[in-house]
Amino acid sequence: MKSLQHPVILILGAGAVGLSLAGKLTTVARVYAACRAAHAAAIRERGLIMEGVWGDGTVGGITPVTGPDEVPPAVDAVVITAKGTDTRAICEEYAGVIRGRPMASLQNGIGNEEIIAEYTDTVIGGTVTTNFSVAGPGRVRVQSESAPMHLGAWSGDGGAPGRLIEIVRSAGIPVEADDDIRSGKWTKALLNIAVNPLCALLLAPVGVAADENIREIVVGLIRETYAVADAEGVRLPWATADDYLAHLFSVQVPDFAAVYPSMYYDLRRGRRTEIDLLNGYVARLGKRHGIPTPHNRCIAGLVRYAEAHPR
């Protein structure tokens, strides 16, 4: 990455997260956002409309792109915010642009970085817990910000995360360095592994996890995930699965009790889910390590069936 004097940033898969990020970064960088045609047309016509805790107003200066031919050759860093189901496809499409560039993932699930590493040497892992939504074509809303963004080295140039953090921070976005971003990605995924597929399958909000008929399934999912994480050498903030489960049922499930996760909406709308970057990923790694993961395998299989047979 060159000097911080107006670097060139490409955001791939710019929906709610990516467009919001583009809107902030445009004050300190030349930003190109690969987005859907409807967003691109609206942004070209009148700029990006932003609402919420990151500011209200219309932002100019973002260059929307709909293909790699529209991206300049001098890109300093790439940020991917696409759904995990689209990671490989978008990396293939933009392979010529990505190659040799530091690339950061701000995506849900675990396993995206492994795919990205097939296309470039320097990969930056990231987590973001801010609540973003699309309010219309070229219009985004940042509803709340519960914690800073975290960025850390996954592979390649160990200095790349620090340079990207400087850019992000200079745009006024809270961000922190994470020396163990792999742990951070797994930590964020725990709640999604525990409740997202159950909510999607049962057509229920997060509070369903506390039901006595469901609780045992959640316990099985998390204990298997902890066993696989341990085999992978991943250190989690809670020493044992039972420690995390206590936090899940006493804090997270009550806090999000009325929330329907994105996987619920994906199934309802007939879209592919990120199950293979959550429970399916745990099951695949479990097989590699010889660790039984019957709960995760079962849940992943049920979600895949529901994807193939929309209601």
Write the layout of secondary structure elements.
Layout: E1 8-12, H1 16-25, E2 30-34, H2 37-46, E3 48-52, E4 57-59, E5 62-65, E6 77-80, H3 87-93, H4 95-98, E7 103-105, H5 112-116, E8 123-127, E9 131-136, E10 139-144, E11 149-155, H6 160-170, E12 175-177, H7 181-202, H8 212-231, H9 241-255, H10 262-268, H11 279-289, H12 294-308
Parallel strand pairs: 1-2, 1-6, 2-5, 3-10, 6-7, 7-8, 11-12
Antiparallel strand pairs: 3-4, 8-11, 9-10
Helix pairs in contact: 7-8, 7-10, 7-12, 8-9, 8-11, 11-12
**Going across the major beta sheet, what is the strand order?**
5-2-1-6-7-8-11-12
* CATH-level-2 architecture of the largest domain: 3-Layer(aba) Sandwich
Distance between the termini: 47 Å
Give the mean pLDDT. Answer: 95
What class would the helix/strand composition place it in? alpha/beta
Computed Rg = 19 Å
CATH level 1 class label of the largest domain: Alpha Beta
CATH superfamily of the largest domain: NAD(P)-binding Rossmann-like Domain
Helix percent reads: 40-55%
Tell me the number of structural domains: 2
Explain what this protein looks like in three dimensions.
- The protein is an alpha/beta fold and 311 residues long.
- It contains 12 helices and 12 strands.
- The strands form 2 sheets. Strands 5-2-1-6-7-8-11-12 form an 8-stranded mixed β-sheet. It has a 4-stranded mixed β-sheet with strand order 4-3-10-9.
- Helix 7 packs across helix 10, helix 8 (212-231) crosses helix 11 and helix 11 packs across helix 12.
- The protein starts with 7 loop residues before the first strand and ends with a helix.
